[in-house]
């Protein structure tokens, strides 16, 4: 398909004229060598995503992905689960089938996200090719292949990389229907929108952003450039809304159930917004303090200047810039009430970001050289930290539980603190038993409450834990980082632990001056245990 040179656009007098002219002048090299170039881009993307795929331990949410379907079953996932688990069940059904084929190892779990990221790659090309030239499209695909954030989430057994597939379908459908007005392109957008909302609840805000931007585009665009009938757009979104009714009811119920398990996220600050943008642009592991924030701000500034100086066409601007910006604004607004802005919900934004960056470094403008320099520095730094400094990016359950496992296997009690899930113990310390769940009335949600109940783990309070330690029982305690605020309650009324194992979080990537413990394991009365 050559969307910029077809007869469907020949009547456009100005909006895409520059883009069509550039398309006619695409270098013969990229035309004749398209297949080899595409194969190299795909190979680089695969290698970067497969490299050290199981180097880091699965972290808590990934292990939850592994057990959720097995523990509760499909009926629960489609009914009660939709009211208490923030992530809709689609990903868990897909992952369950995947595990049936490939097993439950870290590589097996994460390889589904690798596949999803590789599926996104040609969609990035298709979106960029629809709104610009072949050169821009190839550069966009290459940038997505090496995007630090896309690599990070492609190596995580969670839904976030998969969300980029329906998000890309939505952007592609919008880009095409704004040019053609065809029903088929509206169907592509609508199918992507339904798929998106059932992939992750935050993509509801992407649907809202698309509606705001497209309606504004239709109102502001000259009538001679308007191919999409507003009525068709509205009818398509009514159909999308009807398909989303079951999800809407579950989301409302989810909010009433302890804020959907999101009350552990601290209130949003301007610093958080900057840090999350830094993660999107320069990667999850790049320290924000330096060089992350500086590189990100400079790159985004140069990107904006390059877009303005090159006079990016209106349709391209709507798809690659306005929609992700509107989505970000909506998420920030909601986060002022209940924080939902985390780097993971920006994962799909890497798609339009890479396409916009490709345009900035390819389209003629006085800022093109500066854009190229800043892009190389920013993505280069992100890749450096992603590949060389990954240690501590996730809780080191595998290493810590390997050290503590002999004690855990012989313990009279293994106490799991309020926010901490028993699932990492099940995965990395098989055979450990005598679990007790330290319950706190302020803590709710599926992992702190429903999972221990489903596993039949008895509840215990902090005073009983202290009493058991003082009575001479061999007590071991496992705590994740959110429980750091609860540990002083026990440590001030119980003797000091005799054993301690911990791993440090890579909190520098989250803008924290000093790293904190991701996971700690304490042991009491260990000498008595060794005499059993």
3D structure, described in words:
With 532 residues, the protein is mainly α. The chain folds into 2 domains: 382 residues, no CATH class; 134 residues. Helix content is 63%, strand content 6%. It has a 6-stranded mixed sheet. Helix 23 links the parallel strand 2 and strand 3. Helix 4 packs across helix 6 and helix 16 crosses helix 17. The chain is globular. The termini are far apart. The N terminus is likely disordered.
Name its key features.
globular; six-stranded mixed sheet; 26 helices; disordered N terminus; 2 domains; 532 residues
Strand numbers in spatial order across the main sheet: 3-2-1-4-6-5
Gyration radius, rounded: 25 Å
Beta-strand residue fraction: 5-15%
Q: What's the main sheet like?
A: 6 strands, mixed
Low-confidence stretches: 1-16, 508-515
Compute the number of strand runs.
Answer: 6
Class computed from helices, strands and strand pairing: mainly alpha
Head-to-tail CA distance between termini: 73 Å
The structural domain count equals 2
What would you call the shape?
A: globular
